[in-house]
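seq/struct pair 1
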Amino acid sequence: GLFVTDYFTRTPRKLSPFRSFASIELFHFHIPEDTVIAVWNLITFKEQGGTFGDQCPDRSITVYFRSGAPSVINPLHTHFPRDTAVPGSFALTLTWTLPNRTTGVFNVTSPLPGDWFLAAHLPKDEGKISVKGLYEECQYLFQPQLIVQRLVNIAVLYPGHVTEQSMAPHNRSCLYKVFVPSYTSRVLVEVLRCRGAEGCPLWLRVRAKAPPLHNSTTLDCREHTPCQLAQDLPFWQHWYYVLVEKHPGVPGTISFQVTVQLTDCSRPSLARPPFLPSSASMNMPHSFGSAGGLALGDSPPPTSPNDTKHPVPVTSHARERCWPVRPTLRNELDTFSVHFYIFFGPNVSVPPDRPAVFVINLLPVLDSGGVLNLELRLNVSSLCGENVTVFGCLNHEVPLTSSDNTSVTCETESLAGFLLSVNATASLSRLRIPYPQTGSWYLSLRSLCATENGFEPCTNVTAEVYLRAYLSPCINDCGIYGQCKLLRTNNYLYAACECKAGWNGWGCTDNAEAFSYGFQLLSTLLLCLSNVMFVPPVAIAVRSHYLLEAAVYIFTMFFSTFYHACDQPGIVVFCIMEYDVLQFCDFLGSLMSVWVTVIAMARLQPIVKQASVLYLLGAMLLSMALQMDRHGLWNLLGPSLFALGIMAVAWTARTIRRRHCYPPTWKRWAFYLCPGALIAAAAVLLYAFVETEENYFYIHSIWHLLIAGSVGFLLPPRAKPSRRLGPLPRRKGCGYQLCVNEQEELGLVDPAVASINSICTS
């Protein structure tokens, strides 16, 4: 055949340590039909500070592959919520082959067509809280590339028609495909009139959706006469691929005929008419009645010169495997919030003699990023005292309605499904499927009565079941200890839970490492009450007539207390404002406290107007910096270094003018400045290098205590009044005096150094 090669690539992305599915990087690919091989080239490299990260440690990278929907992964081995079905996926761990680069290759032979998803992450780390910009972090970038080879012009088989084929000596196999429409209960492939070798040395392989593999359904035509391979309960609305392969070592040319027969389960006594092409019944549910045959106005398919009509005997092997399928009404409320309503529902009657079948259609790509929820509730009063059990089978792309009354399984050799059951004892059953595959999901409900010999058909008992099916973003909205986040990768949306307070799991229901209520209360009280340490600095500032500084400390204490009360991960949370407002005010108050303290230490009060300008300028610049990046290193260092520079200049000027070290007394250095500087340095070191997610509540509380304590040491004493300007003498007499300094009013000189020439009027 003729091969076509396609290439796909994605932009490199930074990987993060795994905490929840919200921390992984998801990549979306689309594999075309008739693909015989797909090769993923997995490129990973390190970066540090814009260059290659040769010094970065080697950290293993785990990549997950799944067809149809994102992988449901659980690398931390946490517990899933009850009634949750976990679909499987394939995982691959990459190891480093070079200091800063590694490449992995993942091959898939005859992959399923459609959407494929790759998820990648780093292993879980210790949860260290690092200050942004303090040092260059190691970044691990991951870039997947996809190369596919697909066959073109694959021969199409038409049901009821015979295709003749000759296999030359240099050929090993012949590949065909046939489309299986809805309401097909059986696919029968047969090889006829095998000539050119003794015993028909051919293998017959059949597979749905993609070309067959070595482990696909296989039949050796040498050992079976006639060479017929049947597929019961085939997938609806999909291509089935037929591979006729020659035994190795067989010389010469082999000629044979291939035919396919499809059994229409809506008319089990008849095969699908040869003149009715597959496309005619794609959207025509026969269970609701159709004209069928020639009345549809369809013409027979084009016949090739090697094709002849071959009447295949019709059997009723699949009788009663196909029942009327009731559709559901799709009601979209929001993203991943879809309700599926049943016509004349939600109460469903399940008769004793036949199953009730419903179909739920999930849209491609759009619906695979949520959770499919199914709920069955049995109306016990409808059982009339009988021991009735209603079984439900949820299957993808084909309903499973076996005629075996004693069968309570929802799986076959080629079909997997999910089983639900309700009875008088357990009248409620739920099923949750995270990240379901898109397409048609079929729910088949059957009622059986329990006897001493097992389950048997019920007589004259019609069970009534309440059925609810809906699509939600997360499982139970992640509970009270989680947050459901809507995530996006390129044009693909998906939802995932982000847990808090030590809770884990897909729905934040695993409490193995959860914080107790007492622990949450203790951490909240420590973070809030540690701000009371600002009361002594406020008292010192008021006593020293630093009223502006005292106001800033009160502002910081107030908003830091209520910010940490609102920032708690558990249920001990109290918010007086929006979280973003509280966070901004807390950060602004912290930086303004540092700013006004250092400016106060610079002793700029004699130059009153210039000091006010600095206070106002600091508030405006800090507000701008926090709005740009609240977690940046230079938001703290920049204002602090600038204020320290102003203080150093002021102290140096006083030292030069007085020709004596400033501050002049050694007691001020020994008992105030040095201890305050050491306490502040210890607080900064704890904040930058020791704080982690596990010790945050007490390390950050110590940070509050140390910062507030350092302010109490560093705040300068009350400034002494200037001796250069005494009080103005007042003349005794009746009335009042109005003293005006002409030069001060005109703004010509500094009032602190000007002589007093006043005009007094009485």
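seq/struct pair 2
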Amino acid sequence: PCSPPAERTEKVLGEFCRCYQEQYGVALFNSVRYEIEGNGGPQAQLLHRKVPLDDHVIFSGNLFQYIEENKKWRNRFCVVPHNYGLVLYENKLAYERDLQPRVLVNSAGYKVLTSVDQYLELVSSSLPGVTPKSGHSPILKCPTDFPLILWHPYARHYYFCVMTGKEQERWKAVFQACVRHCNNGISEDSRVEAPAFTDAVRMYRQAKEQYGTWDMLCGNQTQVLSNLVMEELLPELRSAIGPRLKGKAQERQRAWIQISDTVYRMVYEQTKAQYGAVVAQCEQERPQLESTIRTDMDQIITSKEHVASKIRAFVLPKAEICVRNHVQPYISSILEALMAPTSQGFAEVRELFFKEVTDMNMNVVNEGGLEKLPEYMEKLSHLAFHPVKMQSCYEKMDQLKLEGLQQRFDVSSTSVFKQRAQIHMRQQMDDAVFTLETLLHQELGKLQGKDDLCKSIQRILERVLKKYDYDSSTVRKKFFREALLQITIPFLLKKLAPTCKGELSKFQELIFEDFASFILVENTYEEVVLQSVMKDIMQAVKEAAVQRKHNLYRDSVVMHNSDPNLHLLGEGIAIDWAEEQPQPESDRRRRAKQVVSVIQDDDGALPYELGAVGLPQPRLPAPDGLEEIREALAKESAEAAAEPGQRLPNGTGTSDEPAAIVQASPEVAQGTAAVPAASPAAQAPAPAPAPGMICQQPSDKETGEEVTPPSSERSPLQPLATTESREGVQTEF
């Protein structure tokens, strides 16, 4: 029998929260111990940007969205702000007038699909036994050959399409960047709550005999927990409700998607409240726990070592045999499979950074020296967050294949490792850019003329590349070690469970009651298992570095005090290149809101883009094929052409010049090393937006989508009409 969702959710969360409270004490102890003992790891050579680039837009452009309520395709203007939310407006004019968006989407846990057949296959597998008969209309028909679908195993799906393959590739890169960023929703800055949460998730799943990587460890804590509940709840719902669904196969599939989405929203709200209460309780108890830890640190460490030695004597012989027979022979194969695509991706990051800085240097020489430098540097500062430019780096990880190893070690998919490596690539790119920015900014007062500036940029570039090579090696070696542990440890725990896990309870009596909050037998057992394989993993990575495979440095190679004062520079006030430019204050405000994606559509304007900008949106029909939608688009284009030309805040014209999907900067659009002076039209600054205009962005805490009627308009200073309860997943209405 299927228990009600609320009841089932409360049961799962009750068990999880007990795990979390146990892990909280251990994580707090580890955090305080780390603070006291420190870490002897190598110091990064590149600087890390401490003040994030919050005031910018990642990408914007037009695409079609399928509206399920009226089964029609509608033109939408999509904006991706710095927090990687997808914000959909009625049209570009609505965005520029600061009207409320139609939809806000947090894409954590979603998959980006570019094939309707692939989508239909996933839909069919979610409700087994329900497949449309041949000749019947499928659940979704796309009017173009270039769909983009956001699919989630539990939440609602989003359907988009564009007109060309080139657009599809761009938007796929943008959507994947959003998914990658939102999946990484548990902040690593929290040294207590984050490890306590992830360890609690792992312990909870292992108690259910679910070992190995988990694809749905995506998003913030509430989203992850909702996925954990749905993983158990959905099969029950499917068995109870599936047979009762009526109608044609497509209707039953649609009904099931809506039911799943509705339940997911209910689970999300309940999870948010229940988990929030437990976190608040732990935070309330933290001062007392921390006081005990600091007072009794030495005794706790001694007690833990005593327990660990007893567990080690019992477990280690069995673990070493298991490692020797089932893990050791495969470590080098796993490492090689990880090293090749990862190192190619980091090499591509280096190449892209070199190319962009060299192109900028050539443009400075060709176009105006110091006067143009702030403009170029402001664009360069966003390079790491440019999803289309960075795609050439990210796509190297698509080559990662574990093949037979994946089944042997119970790795459900390689996506966890791909996304982790891609996040490291983005961070290393931003660190390299920020280091170059900082060093160059320090030199500005000493430079005389173009030639001096050009030589200085080249010299700083060479210094930064050396630092990048060192940091890249350090980051990759750490990533390889962590990935090998993530693959092998769950496998070992599963192998050892029948002979070891049942005996662990006898070690509980060795722990003093006063220290029971900080020493857990299960965690200590896992540390012993980790030690059994860590030596082999460290040795494999070390040998790869000694052989100089994939440009890895040996651990003995340390860059001592190459720039002793560099890290002091990184502690200063963040550089604002816009402030370096002689321009009116209104222009500075405009630049902060300007779209930074520098992409020029070589094919000219899309037929629907002209109609989308500055004109009322005609209601498109719900066409079954491409011809109908093309006719509707042509009509829009004709209406747009009749309107007088105007220039929009991000520099795109409605009729005076071809409108690119995203406004491009002159030097990058042409993609050459030595770029001649841009045309006056390309260089002309766009007018500032109306006073008080604010770039609408979703909250960083936004975890779903919020949809508002298109007619709602508000004062520029009035915040979005949201409530505290709307921070979660929302229903479109």
